[in-house]
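hi support,

uploading two proteins for the ticket. first:
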Amino acid sequence: MSRFLPLLFFFGAWCLAGPAAARPPRRQALPAYSAYLFAYFTGNSKAEEAIHFALSPDGYRYVALNGDQPVVSSAAISQTGGVRDPHILRGADGQSFYMAATDMVSAKGWDSNRGLVLLRSTDLLTWKSSAINFQQKYPGQETLKRVWAPQTIYDAQAGKYLVYFSLKYGDQPDKIYYAYANQDFTDLEGEPRQLFQSPTNGSCIDGDIVATGGKYYLFFKTEGQGNGIKIAVSDHLTSGYVLRDQYVQQTSSPVEGAGTFKLNNSPDYILMYDMYTQGRYQFTRTRDLTHFQVVDGEVSMNFHPRHGTVLPLTAAEASRLAARWLRPADVWRLTQNPAIRPQNTAVDTATGRVTLLVQPGTSLRAFDPGLTTFGLPVAPAGPQNFALGPVRYTVGRGAGRRTFSVAVQATSNPALPGYYADPAALYAEQTGRYYLYPTSDGFAGWSGTYFKSFSSPDLVHWRDEGVILDLPKQVSWAKTRAWAPCIIEQKTATGYRYAYYFCADAKIGVATSNSPTGPFTDAGRPLLDQRPAGVPGGQQIDPAVFHDPQSGKNYLYWGNGYLAGAELSDDLVSLRPGTTRVLTPDQTFREGAHVFFRNGTYYFMWSENDTRSPDYQVRYGTATAPLGPITVPTNNLVISKNAAAGIYGTGHNSTVQVPGRDEWYLVYHRFTYPQGITMGGNAGFHREVCLDKLTFNPDGSIQPVVPTHAGISPVSRK
C-alpha cells in the first residue's frame, strides 16, 4: 500500500464491531488519589531528550525526582538515542501504567524521526519498552517525514489501548492518526488510520484527548494557518471530531504540547502547555473545557520541563516513587505552611542549611513548616520553636538519610508574592491607603501583557487588587510588553481622578480612572512613540510622573538611554507643547527615572546598567527646578547589590513618603532570591519588589541604602 488510509465511513462500523483480540482486565474501582506525577523531557540537546519525573502533592507545586536526571535511559529504549514528549497513562485495571514517547534526537533535524517508543510498568519504577520504526514496520512509507507526540487512551468499547500521534508525509500538513496497541503494549496492530485533519488544512500536532461527560475532547496544536491550541469534540473516540474554531491558550506567546489532567477531589481540570520560546509552562484551570483561567501564580517547579503530561497518583504510589528518587533536600521545596514564601526558600545541599522566609508577623515560637515528604520519615514532627535559632531535622532513611539545620526568618521583603518589577508607589488621599503598581514579571523577553495593583494600610501587608489594565482586551494599539507603569492622583471639584502611564510595545500610553484600582480606560493611542528631537537612540519607555508641590504643575519623564521630561497638560493625557527637554544627567543613566521633592530640592533617580546585570543599581542627582538642569553629586549611589545577603540587581525604583512626615521609603526590584543569581540573563525577568528605609544626611544628600530581606516594619500614619 502507498500510505495509511484516512478514516472513512466504513471504519465506524468496524469499530462498533470491536476487535477480536484479548481484552485487558475489567476496570476496577479506582483508588483514591492524593498526589501527581509529571513526566517530561527538558530540552533539545541529546542529553536532555529523556524521560524525567517530578512529584506534586496538589497539582501545582512540583519537585523533580532523581535530581532532575532521567529515570529511564533513552539509549536503552530508543532507536535514535533520544525520546521526547512522554505521555503517561494509568491502565484500565488501575494497577498498570503505560507511556508513549517520540523516538527522536532533534539535533538530527525536525524531520528526522520515524517512530515512537511504547513503555509499560506495574510499579512506575521499572519499565519495559519497545521501539517502533514506521518505515520498517509498514511498507510504502518513503515520504514519511516524522512521527510526533504519541499518546494513549483506553478504548472501553474496543477493549484495547489506542495510541494516537501525528504523521507528516512529504509536503502535506501533519495529521493525527491512531492505531491500537497489542495486548502486551509492545507493538501496534494493523495499519494506522487517520483520526483528525484540520479543516483549515493546516498542520495539527500534539494531540491530547480528554474523555468526559460522554464526549471526547481533542486538544491539538495548529501550525501553518495560525499557531496555537484548539479543541475538536466528538461523541466517538475514533471519528466525528468537530472543530471549535478558537484558540484556548491564554498567552500571546508560542505554545505546544497541551496536557490535560483532572484535579483530585475536584470537578476541575488543568490544561497546561509548553511556552517553548519562554522556557516555561503555563497552567490554566477549567471546569467546562471551554473557559480557562491562568493559575501560574500558584505553580512552582525546581526544574524546567518541556512537553510532558501529568498522572494522578495514590499515596502508596507517590511514596514508592519518593523512596526511590526523592532527594531529602527537596522536601523543603514542598512546605505547606501558608506563611512560608516558597519562592524564597534557600536550600544549601552541600552544607545542609535551609532558610525559610515567612510573612511578617509570623510567630516563630511554635512554627510548623508542614513538610510534604511522600512517606519519607522526618523528625522532629509538628511545631518547633524557631525563635531560639535553627532547628535540626533529619529526613529520609538508611544511606539516604540527611540532616538539615533549618532557620525561619520573618521578613517584609519581597513585599509582593511572585515575580514583579519596576514598582511605582502612591499614597491615595481618596482611600487613605498605599498602592503599588508594578510590571507583571516572569515572562521571557519581558513579554507580559497585563498590569496589576496592590494596596496596603501600612506598606507591609499588601492586598492584591487584581488586573487593572489588560493590553489584549483593553488597549487597541499594543498587545504585549507591558512594562514600568506609574500613576498620579488629581483632586478635582467632583472627586478624584487617576492617570496611569504605562509602556506597551516600547511606546508610552495613558489610561484614566476615578479609582486607584480602576477600571482604567485607555486613551486609544500612544502618548509617546517618538524620540525627542536630537536624541539618536533609545526606547520610549519607563514613564515617571511627578506633581510639583511648589507650582502645582504636573510633569512626565521617560527614556531608555536618554532622559527626557515635559510638562503635562491639565487633562493629564497629553504633553504641553514646547515643554519637552532632554535632561540626561551623565553616562550612568540607563533607564527607570523617578523624581520627588523634599525640602526645596528636586531629586532625580535613575537606574544604571542592564536589568539582567547583578550590578543593576540606582543613582541620583538634584535640581532646583522640575526640568533641571540636574547636578550629579560625587557620591551618588542610592542602592546596589548586597552580595553577602544574596541580593542582586537592585534597581528601577520609586519612593513613597508617609503623609505629613519627613519619612521616606525606597521601593525597588531585585533578582528573585535565592535563584536569581544562578539564572543568567533570565534573572532580568524574574524579579521581586522590595522596600527599605530611605534616609538623608543633614545637608540633604542621600545615605546609601543597604538592601535587606528584613525590609521595613509596618508604618503608622498617626
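and the second one:
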Amino acid sequence: MPRTELNAWLLMLGSAIAGAITTVLITGCHTSVALAVAPDVAGAESSDSVKEFVKPEEILSSGEEWPQWGGTRVRNNVPNVSNLPDTWNIGKFDRRTGEWDGSKAENIRWFADLGSQTYGNPVVAGGKVFVGTNNGAGYLKRYPSQVDLGCLLAFDQSNGDFLWQHSSEKLITGRVHDWPLQGICCAPLVEGERLWFVTSRGEVRCLDTEGFHDGEDDGTVKNEPARIGDLMNTGEGSTYEDSLTSLNRGEFSDALLGVLKEGGSEAGDDVQITTLAENKSWKAIGTFDGVKRELSIKQMGPRIAIFKSLGVEDKKEADVIWIFNMMDELGVSQHNMCSCSVTSYGDLLFVNTSNGLDESHINLPAPEAPSFICMDKNTGEVLWTDQSPGTNILHGQWSSPSIEVLGGVPQVLFCGGDGILYSFKADRGQNGNPELLWQFDCNPKTSKWVLGGEGTRNNLIATPVAYEGRVYIAVGQDPEHGEGEGHLWCIDPTKRGDVSPQLAVKLEGDKRSPIPHKRIQAVEPEKGEAAVDNPNSAVIWHYTLADQNDDGEIDFEEEMHRSCGTVAIKDDVLYVADFSGLVHCLDAKGTPDGMPIVHFTYDMFAQSWGSPLIADGKVYIGDEDGDVSVFEFGAENNEPLEEINMGSSVYSTPVAADETIFISTKDKLFAIGLP
C-alpha cells in the first residue's frame, strides 16, 4: 500500500494514536535548529559549505545583494534595503528608433536593453545584475536579434554596461518543449563566482559569474562549440553548391566569408582549410577577427554551419563550468519550457524539472521521469530524484523550490504538477531517494481540471514561502488559461504524512475506503466518493473569499483569484497579487480559530504576473499594463502612493539591493535610485 494511503488508513482507524505519535516526534518544533547543527543535518562535506547554512536574514543583512529569486532560499522578497525612492520617471523612448529622451527622467540611474519578451527576474550579486530574456537585443554578432534564443545576460551593476551573454539555441521540437520567443524565464542562483540556472532546453548549467573577463576558462567544460553562422541552401542559384566546392578545394567562398564577417569572425589571410569528409565536414585554422582559432565547418541538412570554440578571447560569452541535460540524462519532457529558479542548501542544489504534458495537453510523454531532483552544486552529480506527481501532472511544472529549517528539520518544498505541495528532508537522501516528510493538496477534492482553464482545479505556479515556522502558497494556472477561482493557504509544516485539508474516500455503507489521488477530479460524488475532513490537516488558515464590507454578498474584489505570484511578508503583514490584478493584504497569522484576516484588496485594473517587493517601508508590485504600484507598507495603507508607468509590461518582480530598485520590463532593465 502506498505511504499516503497507509497514512489515511491510520488516521481513520485511530487519529488520536497518530496524533500522539506525531506530538512526540515534533516536540519543540517551532524553534530553529542551531547553526552548528545544520551542516550535519544536510550532509555537507566541506568546510566551505558551512557559511551557506547561516539564516537567510543574516545572509542579506547588509542589503547589498539579492543573489537568487526571492533573495534567499525561504523566497520571502523582503530585503534589508534603505533609501529607496517611492517615485520615478523613466523618460521617453522612441518606439521606432529606441532613442531615449531623458530630459524628464527622474531617479533613473541607468537602463539596459533586454529582449523583446522578458519574464526573468533580476538577480544582483558580485557587482553584477543577471536577468533572463530572449535575443531581441542582439548583443552578440553571431546571433543577430532576429535569431530566437534563450539568453541569460550579465550587466555591470554600477552603470548597466553589458558584460556577457549565455545563449541557448531553441530545441528543434519547437513549442512543445521550447516555446518561441519566451527566452530564459527563470532567475539564476549566485554564490561567490558561481551561478546556476535552468535553460529553456532543459539543462541545469553552472557558470562563472566573471565570464572570460578573468582570463580563465574554468570548469570541466572546455572549448564549448559556438555557432558563428549558417549558409542556407535556398535553392536559388549555385551559391550553396559553389561553397561546398570551395571548401573541398581548401577555400572559403565569398558567401561563407560574408557569414564569418556577420558573425564577428572575419577571416585573415593565413587561414588553411582541411577537408575531413568531402561535402560533409572541414576544419579551418588561422586568424579570425584577430584571434588564432580552429573553426569547425559542417554540412547539416539544408545548411553549411560554422562553429568556433569558446575561450578566454570571447569576453562577451559565458564561461560554462558544467552542464547537466535533464532531457537526455533523466528522460524529462518539459511542457513549453523549463523555468525553475534553483536554490541551494550547503552543497546541495534543488531543481524542479518541469516535466509535463505534450502538445495534446492530454498525454504525458515521460511518466517515469522525475519531477524533483537534488544535485551536488559543485559537480552536477544527481544525488536523488523523485516522481511523486506521477501520471497526475495536470499541465506543466514551472514552480521553484524553497528551503527552510522547520520543526528542527531542513525541509525543501516542491510544488508538484498535480497541485500538491511536497516537503522532503533537505539532505543527500539514501540510495538515490529523498525522505518525504509531508504532502498537501492545495485544491478542493471535488475541484475539476478542464482543458483550457475552464475548470476549478489549479496548478502551483507560485513559489512556497517560509515565514516564522509557517508555509504560504497560492494556486494558479498558465496565464493563457485566464482568470479563475483561487486559494491561498497557510500551512503548518511540522506535521507528517498526508496533511491535506481533506481525504478522498469511497463510501460503501458505513465503510470508508481511501482512494488514490486522481488527476482530473480527486473525488467524484456521483461515483459514491466523498471528501472527508482530515484529522491530520496542516491548514492554519485558508483564504478564497471574504465579505469585507459585510453586505452578505461576495464582490469581485472580495475573492482570491488564480495567482502566478508569490507572497511577501513582513511584521505579519502579507501581500500577494492575483492574476486578476488584485493586490491582497492579509494578516499572516490569521485568527486563533483558523480564519483569514483580510486587511484590504486593491484593484490594479490589469493582470499581474509577478510578486510584491517589501523594502524600506514600501511595497512595489507591477502589472501587465506596465504600471508599478507603490504602497506605503502597512495594513492601513490600502491605496498606492504612486502608480508609475514603465513603458512596457512588467511581468517580473521588482527586486532591491544596494539602495537601488531593479525592474525588468518586457524589453528593458532599469536601475532606479535616489541621486
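thanks. also noticed: Residues 3-25 form the longest helix (23 residues).
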